[in-house]
Write a structure and sequence with these properties.
There is one protein chain. This protein is an alpha+beta fold. Helices cover 25% and strands 37% of the residues. It has 2 helices and 7 strands. A 7-stranded antiparallel sheet has the order 1-7-6-5-4-3-2, with helices on one face. β3 and β4 form a beta hairpin. It is globular, with a radius of gyration of 16 Å. The termini are far apart.
């Protein structure tokens, strides 16, 4: 199985506690996901619940061509105010391991995402990744940068 890696980094002009409060709430994910993905959290988690190891989160999402898919992730690791990891348990990928790291820096927070993923179906999946999936994932993360800037402001000047 071929795996792929995407790393992103973003400076956000808010405190570490504000960043943690926002990003550790599963319901806020829909606020930074492109609207055309029709992303809906379907789990019965308490609306103000923060992520914890073992937390299961279910969604309906339309990643391509408006086709609705069920997706389930588990929060496997959490170190409060530093990082959390979500892993797909059921969904469109053969592998989805997404690390979210937060570090206090001058003027705000540095957020790093490290995504390891794989597309199912062997050779066909590799072609699909080249033609479609990789571009779609990058588009989602590019959208997040803009959505986060809209919510919290542009990165602090150096």
């Amino acid at each position: 199985m071929k795996t792929y890696l995407l790393r992103t980094e973003q400076n956000i002009p808010i405190s570490l506690s504000e960043a943690w409060d926002f990003f550790s709430s599963p319901l806020n994910l829909s606020r930074i996901t492109p609207p055309e993905m029709n992303f809906i959290v379907t789990s019965d988690n308490n609306s103000d619940a923060k992520m914890y190891p073992g937390m299961i989160i279910t969604y309906i999402v339309s990643p391509i061509w408006g086709i609705k898919m069920n997706w389930m992730t588990e929060i496997t690791h959490v170190k409060e105010m530093e990082y959390f990891v979500d892993e797909q348990r059921f969904g469109p990928y053969a592998l989805w391991h997404h690390q979210h790291h937060f570090k206090e820096v001058k003027g705000g927070v540095l957020m790093n995402d490290i995504l390891n993923y794989a597309v199912p179906y062997g050779f066909i999946g590799r072609i699909a990744n080249s033609l479609l999936v990789e571009k779609q994932i990058k588009k989602i993360f590019d959208y997040r940068v803009k959505a986060i800037e809209k919510l919290f402001g542009p990165p602090p000047s150096k």
